[in-house]
Every structure is written in C-alpha cells, then in structure tokens.
Amino acid sequence: MKKALGIATPLRQAEQTLLILRRLRLVDRGLEFGRNENEVFIPLSTGASDEDIEKIKERCPDVRIQEANFVELKTRPRNLLESVRGKIPEPLLSSIPRSCDIIGDIGIIELPEDLIQFSSIIGRGVLEVNPSLRLVLRKSSEVTGTFRTRKYETIAGSGNTETFYREYSCVFHLDIAKVYFNPRLSHERMRVAGQAKPHETVVDMFAGVGPYSILIAKTQPTSRVTAIDINPEAFRYLKENILTNGVADRVVPILDDARQVTSLMLQGTASRVIMNLPSEATSFLEAAIQTIKRDGGIIHYYTFASRSDDLTTIEESVRAIIESVGRDIHSVPFRKIIREVAPNRVQVAVDVHLK
Ligand SMILES: C[S@@+](CC[C@H](N)C(=O)[O-])C[C@H]1O[C@@H](n2cnc3c(N)ncnc32)[C@H](O)[C@@H]1O
C-alpha cells in the first residue's frame, strides 16, 4: 500500500471526474483505484501542483481531495536488463543479452559462461518481460549433426519444447529440440517467397518443418513445391504444417536424402531451388544445378563465412563449381550477409540465375 493524495468522487460522477483528470494528466497510473459503496478514490499523480488542485475543484465541485492508501500496481520491467538489475552482480549486467528469440510461447536465450550460474534469475526475467511466454530455454550446444538440431536447458517456466509459431500468414507446429527452426530467417524467407512467379516449380532441398515451402505455396498459389527433408521428426511436422496451412494440393513432402531424390526424380524440373543447408552448401550444389530446368532457373544458395570474408570471393567460388559442371550463369542478382551466426561468423545468401 502507498499513502498518496487522491480524489474521492461520488460513484455517479466517477466517469466524468476520471475523464477530466485524465485530460489534465493527473492520474497516478502506478496505483490502483479504490472504492466503497458511495465513492471511487482516484490516486493523483505526484506532480500535481496547487494550481492543478484548484482546477480540479473548479471542474469537479462535488469531489473531496484527501490522502488515502492505494494498492501499488506492479509495473512490468521494460527489458531483461531492468528485470535482473539488483538480482545479479552489477559487473555482469553488461553481459546480459539484449534480445532473445521467441518461437511461439517459448523464449530462447544464449548466455555467456559467466551468466550461466544465474540462468534461472535470467529465465524468470525473460518471462516477466514477455508474459505470453510459457517456457524459457538456454542454448546449451551448437547446432550440430545432419538434422541441424541443438541442445537446450530449461531455465524458467514449464512444459515441453513443442510450440506453434506464426509467420506472415502461416502457422508452423514444431518441436525446437527435435528439428531445426530459426525465426531470424523470416525476412529472408519472405524475400525468396516474394520472387516466386506464377506456375513455378520449386524444390526446397532442406525443407525442415516447411517455412520456405509453405510460404511460397501461400504467396504464389499456382506454384508447385517439392519439400525434402531427411529428419523424420521434421518430416512429421512438415506434413502436418502443409495440411494446416491449406497447401496440400501444392506442396509434396518427401522424407529422404535430397541428393538421392533430386538425382532419381527431379532432374531438370525446377525453376527455383532452395538450399538452406549452409554447413554443407558446396557438397550439394551440383545436385541443385542438375535439378534446375534446362532453360534455366534460380538457385538460392546459402553458406557460412567469416565476417571479414569478401562476398566477391564467395560468389567466385560458387561460379567456379557451377562452371565446372558445364552450366552457364546468366547472373548473380543477389548476395548478402543475412545474419550473424556467432561472433565473426555469418550466414551469406547468394542467388544464382542459371541459363
Ligand atoms: C538448416 S536446416 C533448414 C530447415 C528449413 N529450410 C528452415 O529454414 O527452417 C537444414 C535441414 O536440412 C535437413 N537435411 C540435412 N541433410 C539433408 C539431406 N541430405 N537431405 C535432405 N535434408 C537434409 C535437416 O534435417 C534440416 O532440417
């Protein structure tokens, strides 16, 4: 409770009084209104001057101005730093991450070594700042293996690692501990989907739970997409997401190795190939080239690089592989760093238009 100056207004005039006080910006928003059978008590902001009080008396003659006890409203901290200040040693505050990834009702944070002992305080802070979250996870390993998954530790909240994530007009069901998913790629996915032309045939070689495939099929309703992934868990969600997003007539999911599928079934069929497996980009590039139609198409190629690497050098190495298999390049309309993966490590996107 907090003692503060307030306005006691008869119930029947409460709405009118509140309107006047709000217009004068004199209501203390950190305190809860009180009431009894006959009156409502509105807390006055501490900045109210004698002149303000005179104005109130003038405009609301039936009110009383008196001190009262008000319940203090809990104000939510605006960010994680504000939430943990005073709960962890001051010198560590500068290491508090400025952002956390949000996937549906799960928050995911990366903590430097010296903050790990304060994980649960930080996790509770994330929940406090983002009340819609149910669970907070800490990244506890790198992304590894063929399925490109990572390990997580629960640091606050409860429940499992399965969630629904909304992006543009799509919804994706996924289990972040069993499949790859990265909300930071949403702009890149939209950039690619925005390029799709009517009646395109797209091959998404490493589709995961379907964020590229489904967005393209929704953005360009006459397109046809083959979505391949080798992870059975990702494939299970991919199939479900295709159905729930209403694109089952346009997206064909395949559980298998992309190299096998493209060489056996899809040679020369695609006007667009998406290769979001940056860790193994070069080794799959030849399969992607074979998948592009004889009259040309676009490969969306992704790779990892050092921040200092020259984009021209990266483009040249892609060109060299393509030319080594006897395919001509029309142009390279786009190349850009699209996100930071780790300190000094970035993901690069290169669009190559083949003749
Ligand atoms: C970096 S993730 C990208 C997933 C998805 N495109 C996305 O943006 O969320 C790469 C995906 O490739 C799959 N993968 C790895 N090797 C594969 C292969 N040889 N054939 C098909 N899929 C593969 C993994 O299971 C993983 O889901």
Description:
With 355 residues, the protein is of the alpha/beta class. The chain has three domains: 2-70, Alpha-Beta Plaits, CATH 3.30.70; 80-159, GMP Synthetase, Chain A, domain 3, CATH 3.30.300.110; 179-354, 3-Layer(aba) Sandwich (Rossmann fold). 28% of the residues lie in helices and 30% in strands. It contains ten helices and 17 strands. The protein has helices spanning 14-23, 50-59, 80-84, 119-129, 186-193, 211-219, 232-244, 258-265, 281-291, 311-324, and strands spanning 2-10, 34-35, 39-43, 64-70, 101-103, 106-109, 135-139, 152-157, 162-167, 170-175, 201-204, 224-229, 251-255, 272-275, 297-306, 329-342, 345-354. A seven-stranded mixed sheet has the order 13-12-11-14-15-17-16, sandwiched between helices. Helix 8 (258-265) packs parallel to helix 9 (281-291). The model has no long low-confidence stretch (mean pLDDT 95). S-adenosylmethionine (SAM) binds at residues 146-148, 180-182, 185, 206-208, 211-212, 228-231, 234, 257-258, 276-277.
Low-confidence stretches: none
Name every ligand kind in the structure. S-adenosylmethionine
Please tell me the total number of domains.
Answer: 3
Calculate Rg over CA atoms. Answer: 28 Å
Q: How much of the polypeptide forms β-strand, as a percent range?
A: 25-35%
Would you give the CATH topology of the largest domain?
Rossmann fold
Number of strands: 17
Strand order of the largest sheet: 13-12-11-14-15-17-16
Alpha plus pi helix count: 10
Q: Report the mean per-residue pLDDT as an integer.
A: 95
* Ends apart, CA distance between termini: 74 Å
Would you state the CATH class of the largest domain? Alpha Beta
